[in-house]
Amino acid sequence: MVLAAVLLLDLVLVVRRPRVPSTKEAAAWVGCYVALALVFAVALLAAGGTDRATEFLTGWLLEYSLSVDNLFVFLVVISRFAVAKEMQQRVLMVGILIAILLRGVFILAGVRIIESFTWVFYVFGAYLVYVAVKQALGGEDDSGSREGRIVRTLRTRVGLSPFVLVVVSLGGIDVLFALDSIPAIFSVTTDPFLVWACTIFALMGLRQLYFLLGELLDRLEYLDIGIAVILGFIGLKLVLQAMATNEVPWINGGRPIGWAPTIETWQSLLVIVASMTIAVGASLVRQRRG
Q1: CA-CA distance, 129 to 261, in Å (whole number)?
Q2: Distance between CA atoms of 261 and 263, rounded to whole angstroms?
Q3: Are 129 and 236 spatial neighbours (Cβ–Cβ below 8 Å)?
Q4: pTM score, two decimals?
Q5: In this predicted model, what pLDDT tens digit does every residue of 84-93 receive, in sequence order?
């Protein structure tokens, strides 16, 4: 209820005041959403114990880190459509609301798939490692080209307005990014409630983070490397989880692989925090040195 109330207030403000927020205002909103996430973690600690609170914090930071990657593409889309600055808040808000709904569908589907087919962790893990290697090597991201084809089709055959086209573009891009983030969060927990909470808290502050970081995003040269490390680590963790609970007949005779090491949730938390801190710090140092 609290989340819904805050999100509704944010939506009302965007509709009534479609303008570019100041850095101070954007920072205040980001701080508010971060504080809410921490309060939620404390509530989980009191009600569910250390494990659930740690799983939430790890999942939230993981989703938040991967969501930052979305901002780069958001910048490209908004620039491509030349969205007026005073309308960018409204466009981003609608796009994020669509993302929240789509993520809910993906989460429910993902949980059902995992419950029925435990071997899917092999697929999720291998895919994340592939994405990590591709991103680390600077492979060209085809999300922009896919989005471009979709937009051209909608513009020529359906005749949608520019505003709707931008929103559809952001929604379509989020579907592509969900292919990375949803499997990643399942490495932390498969509890639908926790997965949903991590995703919501990560997406809720994304619009304000867009305006807070602004041009700084282009200066974070090593952010892609940091995210690639996180994805690679999470992919490896998923594969190890699949090995520890193996049921695939042609792998180890369908029996769990006992020597597969277990990566604890707190270890994942450390890797996520360290990767993002080092990536951002190295980028800022490189920027100062020119």
Answers
A1: 18
A2: 7
A3: yes
A4: 0.79
A5: 776 777 777 7
